[in-house]
Amino acid sequence: MIAQLVVDAQVLKNIIQDPRFYKLLPCLVNASERLRAVPATKGGCGRCQKRRLAAENPVLTDVRNCIMRLDEAGRNEFKRLLNTQRVVITAGQHGALASVAF
Ligand SMILES: [Zn+2]
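Above are the sequence and the zinc ion SMILES. Below is the predicted complex in structure-token form.
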């Protein structure tokens, strides 16, 4: 088990695609469908990147919100699944905005 995991956009995307979390966070099922609908533009020009992020960000925001709504038991289960003692959930692409820890 690790001491702390920073749940940034990339970790969120991994969680969204991991069915182990779906029972705890049913909102992930819908989120994974919405993410799949975002055209994959690995690399691509700045405009493509921006369009992709604009499509992804609302999905990630919804998932952050449903993680934050977990009760204490849910938060403990979330940390157990992530094998960490503490999580820090960052908002914004580089964690520059507000973050929540539990
Ligand atoms: Zn482009």
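The pocket of zinc ion is lined by residues 44-45, 47-48 (CB under 6 Å).
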